[in-house]
Backbone:
């Protein structure tokens, strides 16, 4: 199938450059060879009418518009792309139903366990909360290290020879993971703790599909400082 095919229907992605969930969708589009989509940068402090109309429930990015019809939430979009463009580029999900279930399990683990802990370390209002979040994130990554060994079967990616659903879902976090060391002084992907994931991250970042998707670390750092300032301001009681 030609890149961007879909009965001639326009593809438009509503996103915001810092979002790891938008990074996921862009990675998936590029892996499937769909490069002629329109990317629309949203101002999340002043959301567009198109975004609010396209995702009236959550009012969040990313939103993929295919022929004007909205698909919301990053993982839903990834699965939609697989269904809508089954012959384009990389298959994100394996053909075998059991293997698909395993991939979905580990993506849910990455979001529900790893990311949930990590976000606490970023948004925690006390040092204890931040430390507990970091400890939880590191423990989850060690579990994902074991998962990589089992899923990859000695090949370069979770999905085998080519990146797939788990690779894209976890890979969407790589930009922020690289910046986290400078923000918090903690290297989440450390060769001593998770050597397989460190090598995987380096391979993933070198993919053509990843080029131009991840923001520069300094750009993320500046944005992170803005978020920290907002968090601190919201935690300060009004006099």
Residues:
């Amino acid at each position: 199938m030609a890149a961007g095919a879909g009965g001639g229907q326009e593809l438009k992605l509503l996103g915001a450059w810092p979002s790891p969930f938008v990074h996921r969708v862009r990675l998936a589009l590029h892996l499937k060879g769909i490069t002629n989509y329109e990317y629309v940068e949203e101002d999340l402090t002043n959301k567009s009418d198109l975004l609010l109309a396209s995702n009236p429930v959550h009012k969040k990015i990313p939103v993929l518009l295919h022929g004007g019809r909205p698909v919301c939430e990053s993982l839903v979009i990834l699965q939609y792309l697989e269904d809508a463009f089954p012959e384009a580029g990389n298959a994100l999900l394996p053909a075998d139903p059991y293997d698909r279930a395993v991939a979905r399990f580990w993506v849910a683990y990455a979001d529900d366990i790893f990311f949930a802990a990590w976000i606490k370390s970023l948004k925690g209002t006390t040092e204890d909360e931040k430390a507990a979040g970091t400890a939880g994130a590191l423990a989850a990554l060690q579990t994902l290290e074991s998962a990589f060994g089992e899923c990859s079967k000695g090949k370069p990616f979770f999905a085998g020879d080519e990146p797939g659903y788990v690779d894209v879902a976890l890979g969407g976090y790589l930009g922020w993971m690289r910046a986290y060391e400078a923000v918090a002084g903690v290297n989440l992907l450390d060769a001593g703790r998770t050597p397989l994931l460190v090598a995987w991250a380096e391979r993933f970042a070198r993919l053509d599909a990843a080029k131009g998707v991840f923001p520069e670390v300094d750009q993320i750092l500046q944005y992170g400082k803005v978020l920290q300032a907002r968090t601190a301001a919201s935690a300060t009681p009004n006099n």
Remarks:
- Confidence is low (pLDDT under 50) at residues 1-7.
- The first helix runs from residue 20 to 31.
- The chain has two domains: 11-84, 97-218.
